[in-house]
Structure of Putative FAD linked N-terminal:
Amino acid sequence: MKPSPISEMASPRRVLTLLLTAFPLGSWGAAFRKPSAAASCRNLPGDAAWPSQSQWAQLNSTVGGRLIATVQLASVCHTPNINSAACKQVEDAWHYADEHVRAPAEFLAPYFQNQSCDPFSRTNQPCVLGNYAQYSINVVGISDVQAGIKFAQDNNIRLTIKNTGHDLLGKSTGKGALSLWTHNLNSIEWLDQYSGDASYSGKAVRLGAGVMTQDVFTAANQRNVRVVTGTCPTVGVAGGYTSGGGHGIFTSKYGMAADNVLEWEVVTAAGVHLVATPTSNADLYWALSGGGGGTFAVVLSMVTRVYSDGPIAGASLSFDVNSAGSVSKFWDGVATFQSSLSAVVDAGAVVSYSLTTTALTLYGVALPDANTSTLDSVMQPLTTAMSNIGINLQVAKTQHTGFLDYYNYYFKTAVTTTPAAQITGGRLIPRSLMQDLTKAKAVGQTFRTAVEAGFVGICDAVNANQPHLHDNAVNPIWRSAVLHCIFIRMWDFTIPRSDMVAYQNTLSNTIMPQIEAATPGGGAYLNEANFQQANWQSNFYGSSYTRLKQIKDQVDQGGVFYAQTAVGSEEWMENFEQRLCPA
């Protein structure tokens, strides 16, 4: 369903507007209020201090008619807006990312959707906004962000940032919020010779905040180059993906996405438009490069390194309880397989696989700049170790001319047909544990507990300890990890919500604590994790957290930016009515 604007929504401009607001930057310090240390709870609709309709109309005029009042996609399934045909389309698409990422206030976290308006609840149950933002600004340039920040501060209302809403931790939404929707900042500018402040002078690309992975795939393929991204096509590359670290099939060759960033273009909490590089606004550059999105500044664009494309060798394999001969032999095989992965990733490969109660399915090995003969040699120690315990692996190998050819073969169908609505918990597992077979077996038993409880394991074996130009805030645990595993359960909208909440609580209170106990020295990837993660500061950010919090306090003294589990979020809490208040 088309979002409802206060005035007719302008067509999104497809280039990143770099014109400064009519206000000189020097005047913004006076224009923006600095909230006191004893900031009050954020206002909600119905409060006496909530902005009037005339104030919202003025904001709409300021941002060129691009202020959008939230009308949820599933409102066509509920009284008084029922449209059966439209509702069926929403229902069919609800589990997947595409429709949600293109709507200004929608997001992918079903727990936070809270059944306030979905296509599966009773039709006579009217929609309420609940945790959805009240209004969104369709951001097309700097002045839109500045106007949104100022309005939120002047009226003491919650401010959120949504790119694609590809977030399972509830970061990109909030009750009563004004949302900065950056999805339409989708320009791509190729730089043959980067000449910024970073000590790098090669090829690069400037990506607007709204550019999605699939857009980068296509554009990079046309230029025969590689950009470090993930594999999900609808993720915003310059959004929370890269600012949270960003892993993908090139991690074992080029490091994390954040390791490749040369500069960030942002608007700060004070409304200042600036560029952060390793030598200019260096603390902000450091924090944005791995310290998480939605909390330090509003990203308009980033510049990242580009690499020449080339051949990629790929492989897949699987084994199950039947081929192993017994359940116990299968789990011995899982431990042996996982303990053999360090040598594979140290050769530059990334290994992606899933784990259930009955099978381990390796659905993609990627070895860049190699042929299948080289891949054979890289995989041989693993296959030999498996053969030694009686599990003979049949490795199906393929040769690809470049990244997109490889991606389309191994990932395209899977990632576009897998539901995005899920419960998730994750763990980064140190290689020192997995190289010890006894410890690997202990870890494997906690994985067994997880899958027997109805969760599916999805793992990537990587070596993220690659050389990078500058220090950054990527969780240091990534550098010593060999496995990033998430445990997921697809959200079932046909059963009572209370049942799904019970699964969430099982994950938080039983499954993940057991995995954590078996993996001392590990952590979690802040973008693919449990929003109820205990000790999230140390698990998500590691030893970087102290400095990150110091930078947060410097660049956002009034707590303008808040996102759950983001740096500094411990200073705020949602009360019984989901109102954001000082903790």
